[in-house]
Amino acid sequence: MAVPLLDLKAQHATIRDEVLPGLISLIDDQAFILGAPVGALECEVAGLSQTRYAVGCANGTDAILIALRALDIGRGDEVVTSPFTFFATAGTIHNVGATPVFVDIDPKTYNIRPDLAAAAVTSKTKAVVPVDLFGQMAAIEEIRRLLPTMPIIEDAAQSIGARRKIDGEWVMAGQAATIGTFSFFPSKNLGGYGDGGMIVTQDEAIFKRLQRLRTHGSVQTYFHEEVGYNSRLDALQALVLSAKLPHLAAWSAKRRENAAFYTQAFADIAEIVPPYIDPANESIFNQYTIRVARRDELKAHLAAKGIGHSVYYPLPLHLQPCFAYLGYREGSCPESERAAKEVVSLPVFPELTGAQRDEVVVAVRGFFGK
């Protein structure tokens, strides 16, 4: 039995009757840009993330880009971030004219090490961008403790609905940062039928700037206070996401169930390092990522068995050719480099059937002769 890494058709089948009537109505109305569906989703995501404000935008990359602009980060500035993440995290820093400063990750959680982030701060540093990798929140409170006045942009593209216990209270992804950013790329736990993004904040002045920047720097049509972007969330996507949002908690719970099943199934295989979840965190398992010394051999074995898998991420950002001008070399971020050689992600999507899950386990165990 072939098992895909992700099956969006299976998810659509479960909510098709909830989604289509709203889409047909919107098409009949021909009201596609911003409007009531986007405003409704903004309120819903603000509620989920326990923030005062939310601003929809075209995609998760723009969410980070606009967040950086809202903090007046640009040429001559530095922004500290992780090299073990999707390209957009650092690409947006470059695209506003600032310099990405890469610091290494914790080898267990894959999230940025707060102590290294603090040590990398200079007089030019204008923000820290931690990433909630694979659905597990970064230690935002520790970054805040070490850098109490530094703006934090939380790249929560993979962690909508995740939470972390801080000082005995649950804090949602996006809640504790200066600005939080989400992606609605179809493969995310809350994914659209196309691209989309959202930016959240507790600060009213930042909120107003975010709104302005996403619409060409304009509040009143044809009058522009600054040069912004054309980055509006489509109303069609907002309707789909609003229909999906009530299912998100159950879907994430099913991902945690699948993850626990795998971890138990692989418990007797010393060569497999399962995902480590910080005791302070509740992960949403956007990915179930294991570490294996013979990773590439395992990948070939899984491919032969028809088991979907992927490597997030095979080349850390500090070693990407486009960032060669920064001067990083192999050994600059050793934990990120080691992770890139050892990680592989397995199917964990909520619609995964018991038979499919068993097939994954049999294939992985078979590689190790179990």
Summary?
By secondary structure, this protein is α/β, with parallel strands linked by helices. Helices cover 38% and strands 14% of the residues.
Polypeptide structure, described:
The chain has 370 residues and is an alpha/beta fold. It has two domains: 8-246, Aspartate Aminotransferase, domain 2 (3-Layer(aba) Sandwich); 248-367, Aspartate Aminotransferase, domain 1, CATH 3.90.1150.10. It has helices at residues 8-29, 36-49, 60-70, 88-95, 114-119, 140-146, 204-214, 235-244, 248-265, 295-305, 334-342, 354-367; strands at residues 53-57, 78-81, 99-102, 125-129, 153-155, 163-166, 169-172, 179-183, 197-201, 272-273, 281-282, 288-292, 343-346. The strands form four sheets. A four-stranded mixed sheet has the order 1-9-8-5, sandwiched between helices. A three-stranded parallel sheet has the order 3-2-4, covered by helices on one side. A three-stranded antiparallel sheet has the order 7-6-11, with no helix packed on it. The longest helix is centred in the N-terminal third of the chain and has 22 residues, at 8-29. The chain is globular, with a radius of gyration of 21 Å. The chain starts with 7 loop residues before the first helix and ends with a helix. The model has no long low-confidence stretch (mean pLDDT 97).
